[in-house]
Amino acid sequence: MKKSLFSALIFLVLAAVKDAGACSMLSLTGGPGYSSPSYSSPGHPNNNPHNLDCYYRINAQSSSNVIQVTFSQFNLEKHSRCNFDYVAVYEGSSTSSRLIGKYCGTNSSFSVTGRGRDMYLHYHTDSSVSSSGFRFRFNIRASRTPSCDQLSIGGGPGTGSITSPNYPRNYPDNADCRYRINAGSATRNITLTFTAFNLEANSDCRFDFVEVRTEMNAHCAPNVRKYCGSTVPTTQVITGQQYAYIQFFSDSSVTRPGFRMEWTVSADPCSMLGLAGSVGHVSPYYSASTHPANNPHNTDCYYQINGESTFNVIKVDFTSFSLEANANCAYDYVAVYEGPSVTSRLIAKYCGTKNSFSVSGRGQYMYMHYHTDNSVHSTGFQFRFSVSASATPSCDQLSIGGAPGSGVITSPNYPLNYPHHSDCRYRICSDSNSTITLDFAAFNLESHNDCNYDFVDVRSGSDGDWTPNALKVCGTALPATLTFNQQCVYIQFFSDSSASRTGFSLRWTIAGVVPGPPGCTQLNLGGAPGSDGLIKSPNYPSNYPINLDCRYQVYSDCSSNNIAFVFLAFDVESHTQCKYDYVELFRGCSTTSGSQGKFCGTTVPGPSTSYRTSCKSMRFKTDGSVARSGFNMRYTVTGTCCPSSGVISSPSYPLNYHNNADNCYVICPPGARRIRLRFNMFIMEGSEPSCRYDSLTIKRTYCTSGSQLDKFCGTKTTPFTRTYTASKLALKFKTDGSVVKKGFSLYFSKVL
């Protein structure tokens, strides 16, 4: 009897496994543009068997693609939480991926969309009610909108806002934005308050919607809230969860102004998140916890200061400061961030016993985190803050380098004295196989033991976050040569309101292998709004060479401007996964992260716009076999932000420029009446005044229609300066199809 029961059990298990395998489809696949035939659940349109577990895996062949599954017929046992019969859809390759949704009941046709390489479906029936199942098909397309994800919001108590792309203008079609708010602890509440809401309406919010979920990975749960239409959702308070995950989705048809939502992470008892003041405000003094008595152990207090404008400067003055000392501030510390939360740029961590000192940051917010551990007591600190308007024009240069080469960075006005209240940021980036070397040729700053007044601060990494090995220098001693194996180096030059000196001059060098022929590396494109130009594959319109790895970088001078790429022609070796030859677009200066899509074949990619960015990049890679005519692409910079000074160089400088270049660089310093150009290097084909072959033409206002002020070519053996009475200049760089040379590099500034 036992033997027969055991045999029957084995039979049932094997039968179940066989049924699951028989009804599963794990090899559904396709590339962009593919539309599948229709597939049905077992037995459909008749009743499906009980106790089924069928699995469907769809492979879109690229992580930059979008998969849409459309159910044309759907009839499963109904339940409020779909506990009995259901189809679970996952954004990924298995049931451990993000659960998009669980579906049951009777529905008319509906679609489920996910992005990435894979989508996974699990169809389950139990042992009771029968139903006719479902019928579905899927299609695949390349993502047509730039990434709008913000997955590192918060981190502790604080406030902020989230808006749909382009808000308050209409959002784009095919948007898929993910936002994750981190409270830092499940003991804090997350409050979401919509202040504006206008999306396409639908009774089931199938077309455009905002969806709010909890948990870090945003799995579907019964408490998911989905909103559309024009009714402003009620305020939602999330308790007992560390994360809130929000998705904004739009389809390919109707668009509306979208939404604005304010988020708040509740404060700990010792926190102060409502500190605020406009220009001229000087706050009263605030103290840490029980200061001047010893502070308690295991404290985490947060302070958020709102300067009420992104153009302001916030200065925090510590008048008393005593915390447990440690070389890396690992135990008790105050961490100060330039922004609204702990995910902003970390200015520094402070500990030990100090005399009065100040910390300055620019922008609307400054955020401080005070932490104590469970050991040594200390008396803490006292501080106050003040808010002032930025007193000097922007001197940032955040798009330096990108490929092997060298250049020079100087303090403003060098070799004359630098101005008071300077705050200049420089970012030098290379590819992953290069080193970055900094050699100071001159150095003369106000001296102080802790460099509290004027200083140069050198940090590794692209965001300028503080680390224990950050180098802060001042005085007159020439700093030693610095070499970094990091991809980026971040440098800050700061001066206060008193003494000024001649400043510094340093040469940066990126050492590595120079890829490709002239024009294969173009990292000095772009400029202020109105700048534009063409990027063409090498040899275009003839076939491009094999074994290329070309990098292109367009900068916009300010993080609030926009950069658009529009392809005019496109013919690159085709492959479903673009494995051989391809063009890949990136949001930001890096060509190793932030991909916005990989393209090949003969279909011209759609326009790609990166909003509110200082940089947009592209990589063109070819293998050793088939070659095609390549591509011709126009880039355009739009926006309203113009820097007061900066560097402009020919597209590949310090490498040789390429044939058939056509680039326009716009200069429009705010409030300028006169603009000075100082050329540090100028080597081009031709001779003046005709400049028949290669030339740099200086025009008033526009490259296309502006009046000509100057035209340069040939070789200048020494640096030279030109000053123009104009509020806006356009520099037209044009080359012919023969000789190539080193090009030019200049520093522009308005004449005060």
Model description:
The chain has 752 residues and is an all-beta fold. Helices cover 3% and strands 46% of the residues. The protein contains 1 helix and 56 strands. The strands form 11 sheets. The chain has an 8-stranded antiparallel sheet with strand order 45-42-47-40-49-55-51-52, with no helix packed on it. Strands 1-3-9-5-6 form a 5-stranded mixed sheet. Strands 2, 4, 7, 8 and 10 form a 5-stranded antiparallel sheet that branches. A hairpin with a 6-residue loop joins strand 24 (333-338) and strand 25. The longest helix is centred in the first third of the chain and has 22 residues, at 2-23.
Element layout with pairings:
Layout: H1 2-23, E1 25-29, E2 39-40, E3 53-59, E4 65-75, E5 86-91, E6 98-103, E7 106-107, E8 110-115, E9 118-124, E10 133-142, E11 150-154, E12 158-163, E13 176-182, E14 190-198, E15 209-214, E16 225-227, E17 236-238, E18 243-249, E19 258-265, E20 272-276, E21 286-287, E22 300-306, E23 312-322, E24 333-338, E25 345-350, E26 353-354, E27 357-362, E28 365-371, E29 380-389, E30 397-401, E31 405-410, E32 423-429, E33 435-444, E34 455-460, E35 471-473, E36 482-484, E37 488-494, E38 503-511, E39 521-526, E40 532-536, E41 549-555, E42 562-571, E43 582-587, E44 595-599, E45 608-610, E46 615-621, E47 630-638, E48 645-649, E49 662-667, E50 674-683, E51 695-700, E52 708-712, E53 715-716, E54 720-725, E55 729-734, E56 743-750
Parallel strand pairs: 1-3, 11-13, 20-22, 30-32, 39-41
Antiparallel strand pairs: 2-10, 3-9, 4-7, 4-8, 4-10, 5-6, 5-9, 12-19, 13-18, 14-17, 14-19, 15-16, 15-18, 21-29, 22-28, 23-26, 23-27, 23-29, 24-25, 24-28, 31-38, 32-37, 33-36, 33-38, 34-35, 34-37, 40-47, 40-49, 41-46, 42-45, 42-47, 43-44, 43-46, 48-56, 49-55, 50-53, 50-54, 50-56, 51-52, 51-55
